[in-house]
Design a protein that fits this description.
Elements lengths: L2 E13 L5 E13 L3 E6 L5 H9 L6 E6 L2 E2 L5 H8 L2 E4 L11 H12 L4 H14 L15 H12 L6 E5 L7 H18 L2 E5 L12 E6 L2 E5 L2 H4 L5 H10 L12
Helix pairs in contact: 3-4, 3-5, 5-6
Length: about 260
């Protein structure tokens, strides 16, 4: 199976104010299969968001190698790093919309900044996206006028404008009620089915988020455990995984694919 992202013996540490060192990633190796959904789970401070930042080149690992689409991007800088980032779309925890821009302007932003398309071409593409993400009639609204779920839709529409090969989702349903979170999960599944991108989701919404997962990675004290399915997690004999199962998944867990 082709890997979209691969970590090879990657370590990341941080110096603490008291002079000690916190190890977030300790020589971890794993791969994320292309065209599939991988969920990264773990407790607060376990390194989930750090992993995404290393993938995007926003943070440097202390050692190890990072491959994206087979290319070693460990020391990427300048134009090489910029080219790397064009392969990614990102949906942040708070959607990261610009409050001073309308929905249309937010979605159009990457096209205006990174392409040479005319305003007519941009307008046609953005309006098509707004329709696809059920945002018709909201193009002139500002983020403050939108519900949490609508902001997520706008953020995803914007992230998809450059047709990324890989989508990164950082706690995408934080702040949403269970019904709205389920709608967003359905939107993610539908969008991936249509576009075929690789999806990496960092989330604390366990076990619900596992309904989207083809593979699960659990972070704990610098180490990573990789599972080929959510069901496989509950059969692990490792004490920290058994505790994770007890706290988040219950005695018997079975995932249910999100209907699209």
């Amino acid at each position: 199976m082709t890997s979209a992202i691969e970590f090879i013996d990657v370590s990341k540490t941080f110096a603490k104010k008291d002079g000690t060192v916190q190890t977030v990633l300790d020589s971890v190796s794993f791969s994320i299969p292309a065209g599939k959904t991988t969920v990264i789970a773990g407790g607060s401070g376990s390194g989930k968001s750090v992993t995404l930042k290393i993938v995007l080149g926003l943070m440097r690992a202390n050692s190890g190698r990072v491959l994206v689409q087979g290319n070693d991007v460990t020391g990427a800088k300048g134009k090489e790093l910029e080219a790397l980032r064009t392969q990614f779309g990102v949906l942040f925890q708070g959607s990261a919309l610009f409050d001073s821009l309308t929905v249309f302007e937010n979605v159009a932003l990457p096209l205006r900044e990174r392409t040479k398309k005319t305003e007519e071409e941009i307008g046609n593409q953005v309006h098509a996206s707004l329709s696809q993400f059920e945002l018709d009639g909201h193009e002139d609204k500002y983020p403050a006028q939108l519900s949490g779920g609508m902001k997520k839709r706008v953020g995803l529409a914007r992230a998809m404008q450059l047709k990324p090969a890989i989508m990164l989702f950082d706690e995408p349903t934080t702040g949403l009620d269970p019904v709205m979170a389920q709608e967003i999960y359905q939107l993610f599944a539908k969008t991936q089915s249509e576009f075929g991108f690789t999806s990496v989701i960092v989330s604390h919404d366990i076990p619900k988020i596992f309904n989207l997962a083809d593979r699960v990675i659990i972070l704990n004290r610098g180490s990573m455990d990789v599972f080929s399915s959510p069901e496989e997690i509950q059969w692990s004999e490792k004490p920290h995984i058994r505790e994770f199962v007890k706290m988040t998944m219950g005695d018997i867990y079975q995932s249910h694919l999100v209907e699209i």
